[in-house]
Amino acid sequence: MWRILKFLLVAVCFFGVSFGSEVEDLKKACELGSRDGCESLWRFYQVGKGVKQDDKKASEYFTKACDLGSGLICKELGDLYAKGRGVKQDDKKASEYYAKACDDSRDSNGCYNLGVFYNEGKGVKQDYKKVREYYAKACDMGEGIGCENLGDLYAKGKGVKQDYKKAGEYFTKACEMGDGVGCVIVATMYVDGKGVRQDYNIAKEYYDRACDLMEQKGCDAYELLNEKDY
Description:
By secondary structure, the chain is mostly helical. It has helices spanning 2-31, 35-47, 55-67, 71-83, 91-104, 108-120, 128-140, 144-156, 164-176, 180-192, 200-212, 216-228. Helix 2 runs antiparallel to helix 3 and helix 4 (71-83) packs antiparallel against helix 5 (91-104). The longest helix has 30 residues, at 2-31. Mean pLDDT is 88; it is low at 1-18.
């Protein structure tokens, strides 16, 4: 029994020293400009690995990692401020980090989130011109929901001249990127003949694609069109 306890004690001491040494090495790396070092320290302090769990310290290292040029981290830091996780909730700070993720590091999700903030006037002045700009950036970077929301602006004429044809192009692009809602909207446009020539067969194709993307509205609409035998 004593041998087992002794072994466990040695193991705890060994791993404690090991983690302590690793943390010190990471601190040095972070101070020297290592983004990975700062990001690792954030994770250590976030969960209390080898150090005492400390949300404040975690956010400090996360901020350093963002400042060193990680778009993904800047976007996640924006999420923390938007939701008030580990930091005081602050929409203005969230928008600043989303802008840094989008403009400095070309992070598509950061661009999309910034577009949402300009659309809702969260942390920034509501501005449809900016909404269109950031949704377009997100769309160009391959963010399907950015294309979907850009299509919605054109469909409703928000900040742009209403243009169903252009809206349809962006909804189609969103669908091709795997956005199920975009597929449903394109299909519905073909059913209604809005911005496109009415075509129930093409509509069924898009509803079917939406269904494959786990969008239940697509499945239901596909079945309905089949029942009507268009």
